[in-house]
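Appendix C. Worked example: DUF1934 domain-containing protein
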Amino acid sequence: MNNASTIKKPIAIKIVTDIRDGHMKETKAVEAQGTYYKKDEVVYLTYTEHQEEVGDIKTLLKIKEDEVTINRTGAVKMKQSFRKKVKLEGTYMSPYGRMDMMTYAHNIEYKKLQKRGHLFFTYDLTLQGQSVGNYAVTITFKEEEHEHC
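Step 2, the predicted output written as structure tokens:
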């Protein structure tokens, strides 16, 4: 077995989410330091995001050829999968309570180049049975170069 593929590599990651709900449009962007690794043809990205109002949230992105899973822990707990043209259920727990989620992904595209990667996916989001908009998520990352002293 080759363990080289499971070596964790430090990355700089940027997540941009465009949200459309009727005529309203909102864009959210997060930049963080994280980790990239690949195991059994599955790509994993991890990072921690700090939100002023609730605290730290650890995120694990699991990227397969046709499916993306987001698992968040900490101040917010969420597990949601996205598979093209399939409705999938999930849950979202925050300090304000639990919400049932449903997503319907329209598109999932992942490209990994030598020391960088790009993930793009779009989906419709339903919370507690109510449509809350169409989301377009672009995640880019690049391996960080560390100088050895």
